[in-house]
Write a structure and sequence with these properties.
This protein is an alpha/beta fold. It contains 14 helices and 9 strands. Helices cover 47% and strands 14% of the residues.
């Protein structure tokens, strides 16, 4: 039995779909079963629970042998994911595939990177078999700006000319599928990137080509970015972490291109051009291009 946590999120939902397409019925651990039903119907086994309620984890992991571990990024992330590890061990699960992050280190100035490092070490110290998937910034993160790009033709971010080797979530899910259905990736960690590093100006150019209309990148100040997140109601700890991460990307620390996807999947990683074409309607493809 494979259990997928975080199954209604960007990565978890794609992992769930990949498993279903492969003829595997996973058990999905979610807080909102109605949302899971709306996404997947009755295809997976849906179990409701909470990372901070160990008794719900025990019920969800009964009979599980492999677990895809993903939780929201928040101040309780270490507690949430170590609860999963403890429950997995009690259930006799033998392999955890953890979604981590590129740059997970104990000395990072970015909170969520430190959190992922601590959780990785905990999994190892508990003696469980593991695969750590450490992806870079998701191409799909741009979908949160889709309405603005569609309406205004603009991307706002405080990233200067920093280059980012963004990765398509569909490739991360394909890596997870290999890890969850075989043994060849056990005991290994993978830094996962897309095939090239692009600045936001280049991203705007690629989107322009895919949409058939001009998209502009607006390099806003850090203060503008901070104020925008504050106005959205984000808590100050998250704003601080996000701003540090933006500086990290602006300074080109997110530009490393790796070969994890080609080596494991035996095909090239998806390009940003492919991502842009596949999501052109969401970003506001020009009408004549859509015809």
């Amino acid at each position: 039995m494979i259990v997928v946590t975080g199954a209604t999120g960007t990565v978890g939902s794609e992992v769930t779909r990949r498993l279903l397409e492969a003829g595997i019925r996973p058990r999905v651990f979610v807080r909102n079963p109605h949302k899971a039903e709306s996404m997947f119907g009755s295809a997976p086994e849906i179990v409701q629970g909470d990372f901070l309620m160990p008794e719900t984890l025990d019920a969800a992991f009964k009979g599980a042998d492999r677990i895809f571990l993903l939780s929201p990024s928040n101040l309780n992330q270490v507690e949430m994911e170590t609860n999963v590890v403890d429950a997995a061990k009690r259930a006799g699960a033998h392999h955890i595939v953890k979604l981590s992050v590129m740059g997970a280190t104990p000395w990072s100035t970015i909170g969520f990177m430190r959190h992922h490092y601590v959780i990785e070490r905990y999994i190892e110290d508990e003696g469980l078999r593991f695969t750590f998937l450490r992806p870079n910034h998701f191409m799909q993160n741009l979908l949160s700006m889709a309405n603005m790009i569609s309406a205004q033709g603009r991307i706002y971010a405080p990233l200067g000319d920093g280059e980012i080797s963004m990765v398509d979530v569909r490739d991360i899910a394909a890596m997870a599928l290999v890890a969850l259905t075989g043994e060849q990736l056990e005991g290994r960690s993978f830094e996962i990137s897309g095939p090239e590093a692009l600045s936001m100006r280049q991203v705007a150019e690629r989107l322009s080509d895919a949409l058939g209309r001009k998209v502009h990148y607006v390099d806003i100040s850090e203060q503008e970015a901070h104020d925008s997140m504050h106005d959205m109601g984000m808590p100050e700890w998250r704003i601080s972490d996000y701003m540090t991460y933006q500086w990290y990307l602006k300074a080109d620390y997110g530009s490393m291109v790796t070969q994890a996807i080609p080596k494991v999947l035996e095909r090239p990683a998806r390009t940003f051009d492919e991502f842009a074409r596949d999501h052109a309607d969401i970003f506001g493809r020009r009408a004549e291009r859509a015809a």
